Amino acid sequence: GHSKLSNRFQYLAACFWSFYADYPYVVVAVKSDKDRHFARNVSGLPFHDVMLLENLPKSASLPVATSQEAKRRIRSGQWDFDYIFYTESDQILMNRRPEDQYDYLDAHPRHVMIPHRLMAYPPDIITMFHKRELNTNSPLDWYGMQCCLPRQHCTERKLWKHMKEKDVKILNIFGIQTVL
User: Which of 90, 103, 129, 116 shows the shortest CA–CA distance to 179?
Assistant: First the structure.
C-alpha cells in the first residue's frame, strides 16, 4: 500500500482483530515469499490461509488478483465458504449485526453487500478547521443509527457534500469523531 512501512503491521493487526470475532476464517494475500513468511511465522495473527500471488506486474494488481484467486479456490472446491468478505489491510470493520447480513444474503443470493468507508477526524480538525461541533452523544449511539444518511447520492461527484456542511452527520463511535 501507500502507508508508511512502520505503520503497516499496526494497520494489518487492527484490521484483522476488528473482524476476527465475526469472521474467524481470515485469509491474507501476499505477493512475495518474504511477506508469506511474515504472515505465517512472525505476525502472530492466526490466519486461516495465506495466499501467495507471485508474478504480478505491480502491487496495485494484488486486489484484483486476490478476488480472482479466491473465486478460483471456491469454484475448485479447495475452499468451502458460503460468503466472502473482502477488505484491504487499512480498513477496520465495525459490525453491528452480522446475523442480519447473513439473512439478507441468504434471501438475495446474487446481491453484493458493500460496507461504508468511514473517515475519522481529529476533534481539532472538526472544530477549528471545519467550524463544526463535536458529537457529544453516547459513544454507543451509532448502534441504533441507519447508515443511509443523505450525505452523498453518489450519482455525480459534483453532488457530493463537504463535511463543512451542516447536514453531513458526525458520529461518535467509541469516542472517535467520524463523518458519515
Answer: 116
CB 31 within 8 A of CB 52: yes
pLDDT digits (tens, 9 = 90+) for 102-132: 888 899 887 777 666 667 778 888 889 889 8
Per residue in 57-90, pLDDT (tens digit) is 988 899 899 989 999 999 999 999 888 888 877 6
Phi and psi at residue 178, in whole multiples of 5°? -130, 130
Q: At 98, is the secondary structure helix, strand, or coil?
A: helix
Residue pointed to by grid coordinates 494475500: 29
CA distances from 44 to 13, 17, 38, 40, 136 (A): 9, 12, 9, 8, 37
Residue with cell string 439473512: 103
pTM flag (> 0.90): no
- The amino acid occupying position 99 is E
| Cell reading at 180 | 458519515
Instruction: Count CB atoms within 10 A of the CB of residue 93.
Output: 18
Rg of the Cα atoms in the chain: 19
